[in-house]
Amino acid sequence: xxxxxxxxxxxxxxxxxxxxxxxxxxxxxxxxxxxxxxxxxxxxxxxxxxxxxxxxxxxxxxxxxxxxxxxxxxxxxxxxxxxxxxxxxxxxxxxx
Length: 96
Description:
Blueprint: H1 11-35, E1 43-45, H2 46-53, H3 57-66, E2 72-74, E3 77-81, H4 85-89
Antiparallel strand pairs: 1-3, 2-3
Helix pairs in contact: 2-3
């Protein structure tokens, strides 16, 4: 890390340096996010989905059943492929 003498900088120079640091940090953050790619076939358990959506496991089970989403058995739990997340987000509409 390099050190600088702030006293000898003008306000414009300091602002320019801060803007460059902020832009570099933003670029690094975006690069990191873009590097994390999600496999659409990744399997997420009902417990994972409930944590992700901040709801109960019962709600997730209801939405899986209501939207007829295919599942995979994982031990004593079931899992759903990541590509079905958009369907799980939608509430189930029941005819009354």
